[in-house]
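Entry for magnesium ion complex. Fields follow.
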Amino acid sequence: MSGAGSPRDMATQQGDSVEDALLKKALEGSIPVHVGIVMDGNGRWAVSRGLKRTEGHRAGVEALRRCLPALLSLGVRYCTFYVFSTENWKRPQEEVQFLMNLILEYSREDRSELMRRGIRVVPIGRWKEMPRQVVRALSRLVKDTASGQKLTVLLALNYGGRQEILDAARSLALSYSGRREELRDLSEEDFRRFLYEPSVPDVDVIIRTSGEKRLSNFLLWRAAYAELVFTDVLWPDFGPSDLYRAIIEYQGRERRFGDVRRE
Ligand code: IPE
Ligand code: IPE
Ligand code: MG
């Protein structure tokens, strides 16, 4: 039985009101412009349930879907999700294959929903080196969501922070090849123009799930002054309330950027 007033229904209502209260609180503070999320713990989530690791990745897509409306409610402008790292190719072939298929399915299945919500999707990383079908589906997703104004979702795909810096250095060297003397005055701003999606601002906060406390090669250049928020929640269990809690934790930090405390 699950009609209005049943214990299950009441529990859901309580859950909703906690979520609403957390959103309200988060909206009272300053909202980060750019959030980064290391979606970790899919494998452990599945194994703890006696399932195959790949089932954890499937459940992870649901968590990603749940987060998007929550990011829109907060008014976050950019969110980078770490989907597949340059190091993840080391995993068993079956798992890599499964992840590639999942990315392909997601790009196709969620295209119209993302368009409807005004979400622009932009891949970052060496994503064009992924399997051809995946690249094709992603390219279509990018094209069809290009006019989205509410939120830019950056998908870090075959992404590595060191590789991003290396790719930037390579393009920079080519671009300056005829005017080497100008390199003497090269500024940070000149350099950042060669990063992936240079118009995207630095990341304000990086959230990592599953209790691991490291960056694992995520957004190295742009993370220079990011606040780091860690939670033990495994990614497939992560939902809007966890996101709001992470933002509230971020709001409690004092960002100094090397300066002294200002009253
Ligand atoms: C994150 O979950 C997903 C990817 C890295 C693709 P994991 O697969 O790393 O899950 P754990 O860390 O093994 O639990
Ligand atoms: C980071 O998670 C990469 C993604 C979430 C896509 P990993 O699970 O690959 O990181 P490590 O190996 O624990 O550092
Ligand atoms: Mg992991």
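NOTE: Residues 38-40, 82-85, 88, 212, 214, 216 surround IPE (ligand 2) (CB under 6 Å).
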